Amino acid sequence: MPSEVIENPAEHRFELALEGEDIAAAYYQVDENGNVVLTHTEVPFAYGGQGIGTRLATGVFDQIRASGRKAVLKCSFMGRFFATHPEYGDIVAG
User: Fold this and answer.
1) What CATH number does residue 75 fall under?
2) Roughly what angle, to the nearest 10 degrees, separates helices 76-84 and 52-67?
3) Domain N-acetyltransferase spans what residues (predicted)?
4) How many domains does the chain contain in total?
5) Per DSSP, what are the bridge partners of residue 16?
6) CB under 8 Å to 88, separation ≥6 — which residues?
7) Does residue 93 lie within any of the structural domains?
8) What is the pLDDT of residues 24-82, one digit of tens each?
9) Can you say whether residue 68 is alpha, beta or left, with left for phi > 0 and alpha for psi between -120 and 50 degrees?
10) % helix / strand / coil in the chain, to the nearest 5?
11) Which of 74, 67, 16, 13 is nearest to 91 (CA)?
12) Are 73 and 79 in contact (CB under 8 A)?
């Protein structure tokens, strides 16, 4: 299973390819300050409990950091991830 998270700006989401055409996705909007507002995370039910959400979140936070942007956490999953991964505090705005 590929493990690279990619940003798909046309769909306003970060994607983690799974099996076949399945993907896990973290949806976002960009606010007036250029922050990445994470709004919703989806992992297909069949992949639950396999750490896919954590892999996705780690890739999302790493990509946001690498791009020099900040994240605003409106997604409850991303908020919970950040609560247990404070090492990303440098990129979380608000």
Assistant:
1) 3.40.630.30
2) 80
3) 6-93
4) 1
5) 5, 24
6) 61, 65, 71, 82
7) no
8) 999 999 999 999 999 999 999 999 999 999 999 999 999 999 999 999 999 999 999 99
9) left
10) 35, 30, 35
11) 67
12) yes
